[in-house]
Specification:
The chain is an alpha/beta fold and 261 residues long. The protein contains eight helices and eight strands, in the order βββαβααβαβαβαβαα. Strands 1-2-4-3-5-6-7-8 form an eight-stranded mixed beta sheet, with helices on both faces. Helix 1 packs parallel to helix 8 and helix 4 runs parallel beside helix 5.
C-alpha cells in the first residue's frame, strides 16, 4: 500500500512530495523500521520514475520483512526535479570535478538546509504518524549517495546507509575529509558499483568503479561495518541498482550478505 503526502521544508523553503510504502497487512500496533530513499520518485513505481524505471523497492522490503521478522516502511523523498535543483540539494561539498560549467554555481547551503529538514521535519513527521523503531536506514544512488553518506555520518540518526554508484569524485578531497572527521564506526555502510558505469560521456568508464573501491578502502580503515559489492556488467541505472537491493537489505540485518544476484 502506497500513501502520498506533501510536507513543507522550512529551511529548504519548498514543498516536498513523499511516497510511503506500507506493508500489505498494516497494523497500527506493530513497530516499524524505516528506510528512507533519496531521489524518491525512482523508488517504487516505474510510472513515477524520472527515466520511466524505478528500483521497485516495495517487493524487496516485503521479502526482507519475511526473513527478518521485522516490519519495514519505505519513505521515498522526491528530489527537486531539475538538474540544478538536484545538484544543490544533493551536494554538501563544493564540486571540483564538474560535468558542466553550470554546476560550479551550486549553492552548498541548500543541501545543508535540506539535510536538516530531513532530520528535523521529515523524520519527525513519519515517526509521529506511524509507530516506528529506532532502526532507521537511508538509500541514495549516484549524486544522492553522497548525500546519504553525509546524512549517515553528520547526524546521530541512521543505523545504516546504502550508497550505490557513489559520485564522490565530484568533491573527493572534501568528502574524504568529512568522513574522517565524522566517522561513526557503528553505522553500517553498504557500497555498490558496476564496472560498466558512466553517467556522462566525458567521464572515464572506470571512474565510478575506482572511486567506490577507494572509498571502500578509506572507510575500511575506521570500521568493519562496511561492505562493497561490485557487478562486472553493472551500468548506471535503476534497473541495475534494483538487482543489488537485497544485498543491501540483507547487510542491514545480518553480519554477512545472504543474497547473491
Amino acid at each position: 500500500m502506497i500513501e502520498y503526502v506533501k510536507i513543507y521544508l522550512p529551511k529548504t523553503k519548498r514543498e516536498v512530495k513523499i511516497e510511503i510504502s506500507l506493508p500489505r497487512y498494516y497494523d497500527e500496533n506493530t513497530q516499524f523500521d524505516t528506510l528512507y530513499f533519496l531521489d524518491g520518485q525512482n523508488a517504487f513505481k516505474d510510472s513515477h520514475a524520472a527515466f520511466h524505471r524505478a528500483i521497485r523497492a516495495t517487493k524487496y522490503l516485503g521479502y526482507t520483512a519475511s526473513i527478518t521478522n521485522r516490519k519495514i516502511i519505505g519513505i521515498a523523498i522526491y528530489n527537486a526535479e531539475s538538474d540544478m535543483g538536484r545538484i544543490n540539494e544533493y551536494t554538501p561539498f563544493r564540486i571540483t570535478h564538474a560535468a558542466n560549467e553550470e554546476w560550479k554555481n551550486q549553492e552548498i547551503q541548500i543541501c545543508h538546509n535540506f539535510c536538516d529538514d530531513v532530520v528535523e521535519s521529515i523524520i519527525p513527521y513519519i515517526e509521529k504518524k506511524y509507530k516506528t523503531s529506532q532502526k532507521r536506514f537511508i538509500y541514495g544512488s549516484s549524486l544522492a549517495a553522497i548525500t546519504a553518506l553525509y546524512l549517515g555520518y553528520k547526524y546521530d540518526v541512521f543505523a545504516g546507509v546504502g550508497a550505490f554508484s557513489t559520485a564522490s569524485f565530484l568533491c573527493k578531497k572534501e568528502f574524504n575529509s568529512f568522513i574522517k572527521q565524522n566517522m561513526k564506526p557503528e553505522v553500517k555502510i553498504f557500497l555498490y558499483v558496476g564496472k560498466q558505469e558512466s553517467s556522462d560521456g566525458s567521464y572515464d568508464q572506470k571512474l565510478y568503479y575506482n572511486t567506490s573501491l577507494e572509498l571502500y578502502h578509506f572507510i575500511k580503515q575506521f570500521t568493519n561495518q562496511v561492505r562493497l559489492v561490485v557487478s562486472e556488467s553493472g551500468v548506471h541505472c535503476e534497473a541495475t541498482w534494483e538487482k543489488q537491493l537485497l544485498d543491501f537489505l540483507s547487510f542491514l540485518y545480518f553480519d554477512n550478505i545472504i543474497y547473491r544476484s
